[in-house]
Specification:
about 0% strand; mainly alpha; flat
Length: about 70
């Protein structure tokens, strides 16, 4: 999961979007209760950052579509 987070983080950075907007975790079933706290902390981080500006969002869409087409 770490490599996926890195790749997506790089795509976000190229579009000028903070890579902190992505988080990847791996957990086992007995630790599932920790997921709720992780969701809460991640949600609070995103709320503090606010929405992605529309021009950055559009640039990211174009970049992702370009990556998909290239494959």
């Amino acid at each position: 999961s770490g490599i996926h987070e890195q790749v997506v983080g790089e795509l976000l950075a190229k579009a000028g979007v903070e890579s902190l907007r992505i988080q990847s975790i791996t957990t086992t079933l007995p630790q599932y209760e920790k997921i709720f706290a992780l969701f809460d902390s991640f949600t609070e981080r995103i709320k503090k950052m606010g929405p992605v500006k529309s021009e950055k969002r559009e640039a990211l869409k174009k970049q992702i579509v370009g990556e998909i087409i290239a494959k």
